[in-house]
Amino acid sequence: MKRKDKNIIRSQMSPIHASLLAIGWLFVALFLLGVFSSCKKIDENGFRTYTIKEGKHKSRTRYKTTKTNHLQFQAIFDESAIYTSQDPANQYDVNKLYGLSDCGNDHTETSIRFGWRWLNDSLEILWFKHTNNNFSFAKIKSIDFNEIVNFGIQFDTDYYYMSVGAETVTISRPCNQSSNRKYFLWPYFGGNETAPHDIKIKIKDL
């Protein structure tokens, strides 16, 4: 009596086709792993962890737009924000925390962000603005590690109102567009130098 091959599909598949099928399933598995891994980056308190890898500038490359006139979020820095620049002059460079492009332009032309740096044994928070491809910045205050800090940017007709905790500063705005499209600017290290080690910053949009 001749038995039927229950694995007839597999038995009739050439080795090349079998290899391609295995590779295809491998890509599917890796894709699903990436999806679930990215979801796990948001913790039970709603914070997403942004990691700037050693030797890199960027924490994220996703392009996301908005027409909002205000940006509110909370952030937590840990001790990974402590660093020593290879060139002592670069210790004064401003790293970027979070913000938006503005006036319908590329962010190197017009944008507003919060910046940060480790300077004189203090974690400084600054405003950082691009206007006409030139940048300016100034310190707002220093903050502590492992504490939830509230941040806000309000886009007014002629000004940006930027708040860190209870402190608010006013910075001139180069355009008065009320609902222009902007895109998000994620945590970034530098300045001239790349991250000397992995740096983790937690951010929660409000």
Structural class: mainly beta
Categorize the overall geometry.
globular
Number of helices: 2
Q: What is the CA-CA span between the terminal residues?
A: 71 Å
Widest β-sheet, arrangement of strands: 1-12-3-8-9-10
Determine Rg (CA atoms, Å): 23 Å
In terms of per-residue confidence, which ranges show pLDDT below 50 for 5 or more consecutive residues?
5-11, 30-40
Mean pLDDT: 87
The helix content, as a percent range, equals: 10-25%
The arrangement of helices and strands along the chain is HHEEEEEEEEEEEE
How many distinct beta strands? Answer: 12
* Main β sheet profile: 6 strands, antiparallel
Relative strand content: 35-45%
Structural topology:
Layout: H1 8-11, H2 15-39, E1 48-52, E2 65-66, E3 70-77, E4 95-101, E5 110-119, E6 122-131, E7 134-143, E8 149-155, E9 159-164, E10 167-172, E11 182-185, E12 199-205
Antiparallel strand pairs: 1-12, 2-11, 3-8, 3-12, 4-5, 4-11, 5-6, 6-7, 8-9, 9-10
